[in-house]
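Entry: Nickel transport system ATP-binding protein
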Amino acid sequence: MSLELIEVSKSYRLSGQSLFRAKREMAVMNVSCSLEEGRTLGIVGSSGSGKSTLGKLIVGLVKPDAGDIRYKGESLLRPQARQRLFSELQMVFQDSRSAVNSRMTIKDIVAEPIQHRERLTSSQLTKRVGDLLTAVELRPEEMNGYPHQISGGQLQRVCIARALAAKPRLIVWDEAISSLDAMTQWQMIQLLQRLQKEYAMSYVFITHNLQAVRHLADELIVMSRGAVVEHLQDAKHLDQLRHPESQRLVQAMLTSYRST
């Protein structure tokens, strides 16, 4: 098993509460799920369902209050395992503009994780960045530009190239294509499918968009109020969804169909 979450919970202190008598809100509650190597787990839910917090828990951006997160059979809560394995986990966010330093060139953005891991000559680094940009269907010449000079879809590809630069085995996509127009979303779905095959990676794909999940995910969990309320072994069979939250997402997808 590539990834396993065992009864994972996470809460946050409500704003305006004192440290000593603070009320807490459960963002993730007793979530258990797993992902086999090379496959994609879709996590869907409305805003506030806890799906993004779950993604941050997986890659170690936040720590759980309870439960365990295991990767390749080892607990990521153990410091030694965390230090050794977290480099294999990457996360790509929805807002690519806030995910990069606008004062850095595209080359420097993509090169950053490489320079943390390897010692390369300037020419070797330039070639590596060019290869990564080509992999995400951008022209290598664009490495000398800045984020404000390219479109949102292109910048999201830069963020994907940066994630690939770390040589991950698992990528968490947190609403990574949601802010893009319909045509660009479809192009990105095709890109993610190709990259997964070429780089032999596992994906956790977080979204509120069931249509995107149907194309990308092997299996699917639906979250509501921090808990998993439904689990489909085959994400293609959306007609089998029964929970009210799942039905709301299905209706949103159908409404989107009718408006296009």
